[in-house]
C-alpha cells in the first residue's frame, strides 16, 4: 500500500516536472523568436556625479513576452542563461550598445559623459574569444573603446578568478573598463578583490535602500566605500531612490549614483534627449 502510494507520488512528480520543463523550453523559444523579430530593446539609465552631471549610463535589456507582457530581465535572463541563447542575446546587447554609442558620438555630449556599461553573463565571459568578440564589435561600429564598459557580478568573477583577472587586465589595456556589479551580495574575499583590476565598484541596491534607516546597512556601505577607495576604484551606488539616501551616501564619501531619484531606465531617444539637455 505504502509502496503504491510512493510510485503514485513519483509519477505525479514526473508529470509536474515534465510540464515545468516543457514550459521552460517554450519560454526559451519565445525569447529566441523575439530576438529574431527584433523585439528586444536596450534602455539606458543615466549615472550621475555629485554635481548632477551625467557621467555615463547602464544599458538594461527590455523584452515584452507575447503573452505575459513586459517582464523583468531578472526573470528571463536566468532562463536564457540555462541555454546557449544567452550568448546570442549577449551578442545582440553588445552590438546594439555599440550602435547606440555611435549615435551618441554624433550628438554634442557633455564633457562629463564617459561611457555606457553593459551587463555580461557568466557564459559570455568564459568564451575563449570573449575579448576578441568585444573588440570586434567596437571596431565594426567605429567607436572609441573607452566609451564601452562591462558590468560583471562579484560571484561571476570569483568563480573564474584567475581567468577573470587576466581578462579584465587585458580589456583595460584596450581601454575597456570593468565594474563589479551588485557588490556586497556575493562571497568575494578581500584577497580576491584586491587582485581584480576593475575600475568601478557598484554598491548593491540592498544596502542603499536601508541606508538612512539602518545603521547596519550604513556601516556596510561605509565599509565598501573605504574599501573601494583603498583599492583606487570609483564607487557608484545603485538604486538611489530618495534625497535621504543620496545625502547619506555623500556623507559616507560616495559621489557617483544611479537610481530612480535621478532617472529610471529610458528608451534610447529619451536618454539621448536627457543627456544633451543635462
Ligand atoms: P543590475 O545590473 O543590478 O541592474 C540594476 C537594476 O536595478 C535594473 O533592473 C534597474 O532597472 C533597477 N533599478 C535602477 N534604479 C533603481 C531604483 O532606484 N530602485 C529600484 N527598485 N530599482 C532600480 P532591471 O532592468 O530589471 O534588470 C535586472 C537585472 O537583470 C540587472 O541587474 C542585470 O543583472 C540583469 N540584466 C539586465 N539587462 C541585462 C543584459 O543586457 N544582459 C545581462 N546578462 N543581464 C542583464
Ligand atoms: Mg548592472
Ligand atoms: Mg547592479
Ligand atoms: Mg542588481
UniProtKB/TrEMBL annotation:
Coiled coil: none annotated. Residues 24-278 form the EAL domain. This is Bifunctional diguanylate cyclase/phosphodiesterase. It comes from Colwellia demingiae. The chain holds residues 328 to 605 of 605 of the full protein.
